[in-house]
Amino acid sequence: MSSRQREQGHDQEPPSDSGGRGRRYVIRGGAVMSMDPEVGDFEVADVLVEENKIIEVGPDIDAPDADVIDARGRIVMPGFVDTHHHQFETAQRALLANGLLLDDGSGSPSAHPNYGEHILNGFTRVYRPQDVYINELFAGLSQLDAGVTTVLDVSQIHHSPEHTDAAIQALIDTGRRAAFGFFEGDGRAGYRYPEDAHRIRDQWFSSDDQLVSMVMGGELHLGREVYTRSWAIARELDVKIAAHAVGSWGMRPVFDEVARGVGGVQVGPDNIFIHMTGMSDQTWERFRDAGAQVSLAVPIEMVMRHGTPPILKMQELGMEPSLSSDVETTMAPDPFTLMRSAMTMQRMVVNQMVLDQGDLVPPNNYPTPAESVPELVTVRDVLRYATINGAEHLGLDGRSGTLTPGKQADIVLLDATALNTAPLNSVPGSVVSLMDRSNVETVIVAGKVRKWRGRLLGADLGRLRRELEASRDYLFKALDMRQDLFAYS
Ligand SMILES: [Zn+2]
To answer: For 250-268, what is the mean pLDDT?
Structure first.
């Protein structure tokens, strides 16, 4: 390649051995949105990466010895963080596109199939370790392709240590940053939740210096006998504790008990609660005071009847969520869907509050918001939810979530010259309001280029898809569920 071609750059190969020992490259000439207020934003700037770390962010970085990634016309920002994704359910993608959490007795297409009966108490029970592996791997690669460089994988598939090891191996083989969530399984013989956490920690997570870390599942709805053990083990191992909090699943009473301090466990800053729909004001206040974090799966909460996503409640309490995709049985897990859902949902509610102050007819058809009306969520807000907030909630903000010198290089390049985004007038605005996964051109994890100019590297996707389809066929058969491309709609 001539130096002229290298300068122009659009046909170049990725930097060789990126992320490797002594390797340096500079991402040149992009619109850089660091998500770190101290670093700031740049209409045109460079990011210098050495091995797995960001060394410098700013205009005209002098690095003559470094390879160059041409980022002209691209938005350069931190990779997205998803704080709750059930990756093992990939074989059931879109099966519950209408599905509710539970059978509500309506006899409607939304009640059957439903999540409780057909996923948690259905498909989940027939998974073999090899099904866990291919489902987890495929979901992880798919989300990496969409620019999500960090995930909390919530796998409730730990029927045996073999199932657990398959899930962890898949997260490692995906090659992105992940927190492995050790949740429960179905309780069969050989079942070792939560005590197996000790073995898992020793066998897989003895070093802090790896892409995959560990989070403990500590579901309160499993009952006090179980959750007191899982929370105690988590604190002994010094890992965070994640738990679903869904009022419509009947969890409000046990959350009230725990919040009141009479549930046998203490809530702290190491707790991540997922959804928090339908929880009491008192529980909210106590969790806020204890420093607990909240992950919202906004589109899923709206479509599956968890309850209204509590963004306004969090605003009132001075809290901010991270965002999560939850289940691909029902909704796309890309960050653009998550950010747009959070923004449109909050604004629908607040805009109607403002309109309700008026009379809908002139002259009072467009009132000035009263002081009591919450502020509208902005594109900057949801970008924060989808990056640094997620990293903070997973305890990974020292490594990820912003483009900050010294942090790991988890970076995405988004194509702002594309048909759906040009001309570029606002970097945060374009990402949140216009982009989708087709704009995610290059994805870097810990300095290593994993997607290059639209193509995921290092994965034989054809072979993996055939393995996933074989797993899907096995699971449907084992559950005696008919495969029919039009029936479940
Ligand atoms: Zn969930």
So the answer is: 98
Ligand 1 centroid from CA 101, angstroms? 11
296 C-alpha to ligand 1 centroid (Å): 10
Question: What is the per-residue pLDDT for 11?
Answer: 53
CA dihedral of residues 361, 363, 366, 369 (deg, nearest 10): -120
Could you give the angle at which helices 335-355 and 379-386 cross, rounded to 10 degrees?
140
Query: Does the structure show a pLDDT above 50 at 14?
Result: yes
Residue 159 pLDDT greater than 80, yes or no: yes
Domains of the chain (ranges plus CATH)? 3-77+402-456 (2.30.40.10), 81-353 (3.20.20.140)
Whether the pLDDT of residue 4 is over 60: the answer is: no
User: Could you tell me which residues are beta bridge partners of residue 273?
Assistant: 243, 294
* Cα–Cα dist 450/14, whole Å: 10
Ligand 1 centroid from CA 249, angstroms: 12
Which residues have beta carbons under 5 A from ligand 1 (an ion)? 326
Q: Which two tokens stand for residue 241?
A: 């504790």
CA of 6 to the centre of ligand 1 (A): 46
Q: Rounded to the nearest whole angstrom, what is the distance from the C-alpha of residue 240 to the centroid of ligand 1?
A: 16
249 within 8 A of 102, measured Cβ to Cβ: yes
164, 128 Cβ separation under 8 angstroms = no
Question: What is the rounded distance in angstroms from the CA atom of residue 215 to the CA atom of residue 194?
Answer: 12
Token code pair at residue 417: 């010259």
